[in-house]
Each structure stands twice: as structure tokens, then as C-alpha cells.
Amino acid sequence: MRPRVRSALVHLTLPIDSDMISKLFKSRSSAKTNQPRIPDGRRVYAVGDIHGCADLLDELIGLIEADEHARGPAETTIVFLGDIVDRGPASAAVIDRLRHLAAARADVRFLLGNHEEIFLGALDGEPKALRLFCRIGGRETILSYGMDATEYERLDYEELVHRIDALVPDEHREFLRRFEDMIVIGDYAFVHAGVRPDTPLNLQRTSDLRWIRDPFLDHRSTLEKTIVHGHTMTDEVERRGHRIGIDTGAYASGRLTALGLEGSETWSLQTATDPAGRADQVGAK
Questions:
Q1: How far apart are CA 275 and CA 252, in angstroms?
Q2: What is the pLDDT of residues 237-269, one digit of tens each?
Q3: Bridge partners of 99?
């Protein structure tokens, strides 16, 4: 017969570190309170790159107005992140609609994108700007002002400068020239393309605000503000620790996006996709 072995349960009592628990709950609490915020009583809608898609702009404005009504009263600002022209078929109509929207609403603001920068340079007769403008979707912008495709193909650059000077009304130029470089509201900074991560916001170069990709897109640390931007196309809203990208390629995908912000809450509104009607339009940005 085998001897019976009696098992013994050993109870270990570990000391509770109250400081450690306090720090743990404090860190969780601070993580919540450190979420970027829009000031109380305010609401912001940031709109991504429109690129000449007047139909999608109309649809998105309708979505914003319905969302405003559903959420109730607030001091609302709509920020357009730039690149309202080029590539799509109706840039002139987009500018007209946005001019009327700005006249009808109290707080509508606009950022100058790289496409508006080049468009204005072309209107000023800068040869390099005109050549680049024609390569990155400016042809569609010119045609939207009433020039037919046959005439566009026939004109040389010098002739084209004179024609677009005659076609584009002064009120459109003046409207574009009033666009801003950066808008800061609460814990968010709104720019067209991004920021240079190692440079304070008040020292950013306008060329970076309108054109940057790397090192901004690949940056992994926090910044002074959470950056809301367009310029770089993604299939859906792209959220990273330091930024939110909302250029969903409207002219190619049929998805024009608005990001809503209120308090620490964020949400998105998006037009319905129309891939059949906009396929094969994606080009270099």
C-alpha cells in the first residue's frame, strides 16, 4: 500500500501597492481627458478635397445640414481643406457654390490647397505654374469655364494664358486669394496637406502646409495639435495618433467626406459611391 500523501494549499498574500493602483487609474483617467477637444458649445465640419465635383459637394452639404439639425444647436464652423478645383468636371461651379455658401452662413472657412496655389500662379501668367496646372487636372478646370476641348488642344501655352485670363472672373480669383494656410480650433489644427513634425505650428512653411507627405504621414509621435488634413488619398478616413486624413478621392471614388467634431467626439459623413461613373480617373496628386 502506498503511503497517503496529504496535499497542502499554500496561501500567498501579496501586499497591495496603493500608489501603483492610484497611478493606474489616474493614467486611465488622463487618457480619456487627453482626447483632443473642440471648445464647448462649438461644432466643426471639415470637408476633404472636392476636386471639381459639384454634385458631390451639393450632396455633402445636404448631409451636413441634416446632421446639424439632428444634433441640435451649436456654434458651427465648416472648414474646407483645399483642392476644390481640378480633375473633376465642374470646378467653376464648385467655386460659385462655395462663394454662395460663405455668403449664406456665418462661419465658413477655406484653406488654400496646392491645386489652388498652382491655379492662381497660372492665372498670374507664371509659365512653370501653367505647365504644372495643365498636368495635374487643370485642363478640366479650364473646360469648366466654357472652353471646348478642341480649342484647348489647339492653343499653345502663351495663347492659353490669355484665354484663361479672359474666362476666369475676377470674383473667383479674389475668392481663392482669401483662402487661409492653417486654422486652429481647440486641440485641432486644420491644414491642407500636413505639417513638418519637428517645426512648431507657428513656424510652418506654407509649402509644407500645402504639399508635404513624408515625414508627416509616417510620423508616430504626438504633435502640438491633432492635425486634420486632406491631400493624400485614402479609401476611408485615416486616423493616426497625430492626424486624421479625410481625402477619400472624390473625383475618382464618388466619396466626398466630412469629419464632424464636437467636444471629444468625432464622426464622419460621406457621399454615396459612384465607382462606375468615376473609374480610371485616379492620377498623381
A1: 7
A2: 999 999 999 999 999 999 999 999 999 999 999
A3: none
Domain chopping of the chain, boundaries: 42-278
Neighbours of 12 (CB within 10 A): 4
- Spell out the long-range contacts of 99-107 with Cβ–Cβ below 8 A and sequence spacing 24 or more: 99/171, 99/172, 99/175, 101/61, 105/78, 107/75, 107/76, 107/77, 107/78
Residue 233's nearest CA partner among 51, 24, 10, 19 is 51
Please give the Cα distance from 275 to 6 (Å, whole number): 74
Q: What is the pTM (predicted TM-score) of this model?
A: 0.86
Cell numbers that stand for 213 in this block? 507627405
* C-alpha to C-alpha distance for 192 and 245, rounded to whole angstroms: 10
Output the CA–CA distances (angstroms, integers) from residue 266 to 66, 101, 178, 223, 226, in the order listed.
Answer: 16, 23, 28, 18, 12
R_g (Cα) of the chain, nearest Å: 25
Q: Is 42-278 a domain of CATH 3.60.21.10? A: yes
Please count the other Cβ atoms lying within 10 Å of the Cβ belonging to residue 22.
Answer: 10
